[in-house]
Amino acid sequence: MAQVETARGPVDADSLGVTLMHEHVFILNEEVRENYPADYPDGWDEDGQVDSAITKLTELTGRGCRTIVDPTVLGLGRDIHRIRRVADGTDLNIIVATGLYTYNDVPFYFLYRQPRPSTGGVDPMTSLFVRDIQTGIADTGVKAAFLKCAVDEPGLTPGVERVLRAVCRAHTETGAPITVHTHPHSGTGREVVRVLREEGADLTKVVLGHSGDTSDLDYLTELADAGCLLGMDRFGIDIVPFEQRVSTVAAMCERGYSQRMVLSHDAACYIDWFPPAVIPRFLPSWHYLHLFDDVLPALRERGVSEEQIDTMLVANPRRYFGG
Ligand SMILES: [Zn+2]
After folding, report:
1. Which of 45, 62, 213, 256 has the highest count of CB atoms within 10 angstroms of its CB?
2. Max alpha carbon distance in the chain (Å)?
3. How far is the CA of 266 from the centre of ligand 1 (A)?
4. Ligand 1 center to residue 115 CA distance, Å?
5. What residues pack around ion ligand 1 (CB closer than 5 A)?
6. Does residue 138 contact residue 81 with C-beta atoms inside 8 Å?
7. CA-to-CA dists, residue 43 to 26, 56, 230, 245, 272, angstroms
8. 29-63 confidence digits (pLDDT tens)
9. Are the C-beta atoms of 278 and 223 separated by less than 8 Å?
């Protein structure tokens, strides 16, 4: 039986159950937090934040969710010690990632560490990703179970392309699946598929994140036909209206693509990108429970069957992780 690494150690793929495929726990800039504590939104109380995350995630398990997949990597403030504390306080499985989140350049740390004859031509970035998957992250003993990178509106800048190819090579070496943040309005999902094919990646092990930001069914169908999973993963970010997000999923189900979609919110317990008080005012549905309380009932109303919902929430995540 296939095993999947989580923040509490390996579990059977069959036990993942209802899985939200793209949720963060903490997104923050550690350097800002450490240097400007007084200016940090609401201050930062480490124990309080861990407790608050445990409360929110425990509430999510109350809706029947068993697993969240957290693509918080370098660039988003990954701290697996903190995640481990949260995971130990809840029954929820938290699957953690390796990779690098940038829309433009690589951090200077990597700029001057290029593939060289002394590294066997291997990108040092790839070696770090592989170590996170095979050995574990820092001294936590927690292993990453998937790879994450981003191709946003600027497209394949040299830095972004380097990260994407490093992710592909770590995938080829380890078999770990991939999640790519894409920007459907500039069609970056297509560029991602082209590079993945060049690198010989298994497209059925790839989530094209944020695909649900578009209602262009032909674009979505093309990427699903390539074998990829479409991340319909920003429910609650109502910059794209709720109705549109729901109708797009229902329409793709009607076209027979429930096996090519996964559902999520891209929410976080805490994100320092905006003052915390602003989020409930402007995006009141952007939280972990929205899918269960609002989205699933709306999908059922539009004719999406229990079997299709199960496929998107249970079977597709299990298959992605090798089960
Ligand atoms: Zn995200």
Report:
1. 213
2. 59
3. 5
4. 28
5. 266
6. yes
7. 14, 19, 37, 34, 10
8. 999 998 988 887 777 899 999 999 999 999 999 99
9. no
